[in-house]
């Protein structure tokens, strides 16, 4: 039997046993045998290792215990450890795009340009790559276009040198009518050279579109293959060249006739009126030229006739006139600068060569040297012109493909053709249905929408 004094003495010991030591152990009190001491581990259990000193870990707070109740000596389940602000092992999801949405994927670029609407730099780079990858086809056709102009220019140069044999004596023995007739004949010869060059260039420009279109899908084209693919459209190209030649002659003759009429009737006032009229005709010519610039490409790629190709070019360049004009001006300035850089040394050669070969030669020897130098100059000029013409034609063809990507969705058709590998020996874009996706191709108006109830929720 426990006396009241023993109970009073035991109570502080029980309270002392209820407190835990810092190491997690508790001081056992005088309890009867078989009674489990609160906080003491059962027999056969080993003490849990003490937690090493280090940075504190976040743990979920346990519910508050009543006063006097002993805490549990068994460690709880491991709590999740929250990473610190600068934890190097911490991984965060990609914050560049919303969760569950795909990233932006660049359009494929199987060939010289990506399959999407093109920018200015891509058109320039693609034009250079076309010439580099298809040098035989592009430069061969350009040389063929420039050869006629070079030959005719050389003939005119030789005729001019021959006629200058004795200029003073010849001029003194001829009348003013003869001089006027000679001037008109020379102007007609120059005009004939320009017209024939334009005619041949218009035909070859359509043929040179084939290597450009095939290079978009990384398909090389030889000179023979280019003509094989363009041969069915040669007739339409000739008719188109004839129409363009007639329009060019009309654009040159009408202002000339108007200038002569104004000068003859109004004299001084007519000359003042020629300046705004000349500027107006130049602006009109440039506007029409840009509108009809891609007609040869439309004739070859879309297999259209001459007049249909002109209408198609007029339609494609709508709302893109200023952009096409800017690209054309930049390309023309580049080609002119390069041509001048090449031709300046060529222009300095004739007097140097003549003074070196025939310092005291007669008229016959001087004439022969002048003819030879004129021929060489024409050949070098043809080479420079061929390179510039190939570049300008490549730019024109890429502008046409860009316009069709913007208006017809041609890039989607080319992407399907690239994936399936269909028609590897044909012209990419040939046979593609014109018109914007989802629109009626007959008239350009939107087609009928879905029937009632076709949309979800009856919309």
Structure write-up:
The chain is an all-alpha fold. Helices cover about 60% and strands about 0% of the residues. It is globular and about 85 Å long. Mean pLDDT is about 75; it is low at about 20-30, about 80-85 and about 435-459.
Element layout with pairings:
Layout: H1 4-18, H2 120-133, H3 135-163, H4 167-172, H5 176-207, H6 209-216, H7 223-230, H8 234-266, H9 268-291, H10 295-301, H11 306-316, H12 321-357, H13 363-408, H14 410-420
Helix pairs in contact: 2-3, 2-13, 3-5, 3-13, 5-8, 5-10, 8-9, 8-11, 10-11, 12-13
Name some characteristics of this structure:
459 residues; mainly alpha; 14 helices; 61% helix; globular
| 3D shape | globular
Counting helices, strands and paired strands, the structural category is mainly alpha
Distance between the termini: 91 Å
So how many helices? 14
Tell me the total number of β-strands. Answer: 0
Largest sheet: none
Order of helices and strands: HHHHHHHHHHHHHH
Compute the gyration radius: what is it? 45 Å
Strand content: under 5%
Fraction of residues in H or I helices: 55-70%
Mean pLDDT: 74
**Uncertain residue segments:** 21-28, 82-86, 437-459
């Amino acid at each position: 039997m426990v006396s009241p004094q023993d109970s009073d003495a035991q109570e502080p010991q029980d309270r002392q046993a209820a407190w835990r030591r810092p190491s997690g152990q508790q001081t056992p009190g005088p309890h009867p045998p078989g009674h489990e001491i609160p906080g003491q581990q059962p027999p056969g259990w080993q003490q849990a290792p003490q937690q090493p000193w280090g940075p504190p870990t976040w743990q979920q707070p346990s519910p508050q215990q009543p006063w006097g109740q002993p805490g549990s000596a068994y460690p709880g389940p491991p709590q999740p450890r929250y990473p610190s602000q600068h934890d190097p092992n911490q991984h965060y999801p990609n914050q560049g795009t919303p969760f569950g949405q795909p990233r932006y994927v660049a359009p494929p670029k199987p060939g010289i340009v990506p399959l999407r609407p093109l920018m200015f730099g891509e058109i320039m780079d693609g034009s250079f790559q076309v010439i580099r990858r298809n040098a035989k086809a592009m430069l061969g056709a350009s040389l063929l276009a420039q050869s006629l102009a070079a030959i005719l220019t050389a003939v005119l140069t030789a005729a001019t040198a021959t006629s200058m044999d004795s200029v003073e004596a010849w001029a003194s023995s001829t009348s003013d009518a003869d001089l006027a007739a000679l001037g008109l004949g020379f102007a007609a010869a120059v005009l004939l050279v320009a017209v024939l060059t334009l005619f041949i260039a218009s035909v070859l420009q359509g043929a040179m579109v084939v290597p450009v279109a095939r290079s978009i899908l990384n398909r090389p084209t030889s000179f023979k293959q280019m003509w094989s693919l363009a041969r069915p459209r040669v007739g339409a190209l000739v008719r188109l060249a004839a129409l363009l030649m007639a329009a060019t002659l009309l654009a040159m003759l009408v202002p000339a006739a108007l200038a002569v009429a104004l000068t003859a009737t109004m004299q001084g006032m007519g000359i003042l009126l020629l300046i705004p009229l000349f500027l107006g005709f130049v602006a009109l010519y440039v506007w029409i030229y840009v509108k009809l610039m891609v007609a040869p490409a439309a004739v070859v790629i879309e297999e259209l006739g001459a007049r249909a190709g002109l209408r198609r070019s007029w339609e494609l360049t709508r709302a893109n006139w200023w952009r096409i004009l800017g690209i054309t001006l930049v390309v023309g300035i580049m080609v002119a600068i390069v041509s001048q850089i090449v031709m300046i040394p060529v222009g300095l050669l004739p007097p140097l060569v003549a003074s070196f070969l025939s310092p005291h030669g007669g008229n016959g020897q001087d004439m022969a040297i002048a003819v030879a130098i004129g021929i060489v100059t024409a050949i070098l000029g043809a080479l420079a012109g061929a390179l510039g013409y190939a570049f300008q034609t490549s730019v024109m063809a890429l502008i046409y493909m860009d316009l069709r990507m913007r208006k017809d969705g041609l890039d989607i058709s080319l992407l399907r053709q690239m994936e399936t590998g269909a028609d590897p020996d044909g012209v990419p874009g040939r046979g593609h249905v014109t018109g914007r996706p989802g629109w009626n191709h007959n008239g350009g108006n939107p087609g009928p929408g879905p029937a009632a109830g076709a949309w979800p929720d009856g919309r």
